[in-house]
Predict the 3D structure of the following.
Amino acid sequence: MKKASLLIGLSALFVLGCATPPPPAPPPVSDIWPKIYEDETYLTGFESTWTEDEAVGAIRNLQNSFVEHNANLPITELNVDAFGARARWSWVEVGAIQKSAGFIIPFDQVTSVLLESYPASDKAFKWGINVYISGGNPVVLRMPNRDAAERFGKAVIVLAKARKSPLSMPNMRFGAAVGSLTVDQSRAAGVLQSAGVIISWIFRESPAEKAGFSAQDIITSVAGKTIQKGQELFDLIEVAAAAGATELKIDGLRRTYRREGDKYVEVFIPIRFSLPIAQPGGTK
Amino acid sequence: MTFAVTVALFAAVCLSAGAQAQTPAPNQVQAPGAAPVTDPASVKPAWQIEKEISSAPATPVPGFNVFFVGYNFPQYSGSLADELAPWKSWLNFSFGMDSSMTIKSSLLNGVGGDLTLNFNDDGSHMLMNSMAIFGYSFNLNPLRLNLGARLGLSILDVTGPGAVSYTGLGYILGPEASVYLYLGSNTWLWARGRYSYAQYAMLTGSVPSGDDQLSTVSVQAGLAFDL
């Protein structure tokens, strides 16, 4: 009897021990953090030595190389005039009705040009250019390859500079979109709202990407100095670059999850980044 | 004794494996306030974890809708019990389907049956209960506790030596409790206890008058599979 009880007890233990633990519940969705986009934005200043004529020629030569982003229609007409670049595309609707639409890029109102790729797109053209215009909607184009996209970007920048456009390109020494912390974000991370900035997205091929930064990282101090605005970060990087530094220590917090039993717990891990700083001729 | 030690060791291994499965990854154990991590690549951002979770193929959460089969240990009492005493059988099975309305604790229903067969030199004996269950199923993840009552028909047939042969059709009802333990891979281990009362309305053959009632305490166990 004793032996039978022991066997039953051990069998019960065996069964309980082998029972599959339930999978952890997904973490609760929080919308206070910067949204993550599938599109990838590359850091480039579109530097070139092109003249205005060469830039105009480059745009005209791209006549058959890109499509309008949303409609996925090829450009049927592309020209550059004194005002800017004009493009038009057309399509036939039900009932053989010919329709067309177009865009204008006024070079004197271009504020920024970004090189994009859409790896998750199901469309054939996975490279693109976003041209931001002061007081207007951005013009979004897609190209079959990076070279075509970069050529268009370079041409727009050359012509925008020639027309004294209020250009505001990304900071090339960091390469990330940075914003101030909101009350909710600072409360969640346990830092003062005045003691950090948050990264919205990281440009591909940027120093920030090389340093290991990720979107939603919080930067709390640069070389030991607390920062509150993105511009303070960029200024401190410039100071370090001017002093001949080849890297800069940046402290921050990374939001992540720790598994505790059957649930995910949001935690913020302190991280020290080493931002590479390009110097003419490499190291100091 | 050797078997007991083997089972104990196996249980220890299984418990250890379960504990390891819940251990956080090394990059997730550092608490805020600790020294800064110098390799950012060792800390996976929350948005990446959220993306992995949302894009991972949904793990099918086992709903409670199972087919069960197992062995039945009946103990008879009542006026027919003496008649059935010579027909001790080892062919006792229980089978059926149990379903609850949702994966959470909810109402339970299902159908099931018990089958007892015996063939020997004296003849044959067959007892079959075909029942429906109504009750409530409690989700005690990974356990499931079902409480309810079964109601159905019972068929009894005995073909014995000489004139000892009879057939009966009656109703059967009674409360039952069962426990299901999820083992993974859509498989459950179950055990059930039931008291049932059967009254045979149409009993023909050589049965003494008044011997028409059978009470059964059933202890059952087996495996169940998600449908």
Chain A touches chain B through 49 residues (CB under 8 Å). Residues 176-276 of chain A form a domain with the Pdz3 Domain fold (CATH 2.30.42.10).
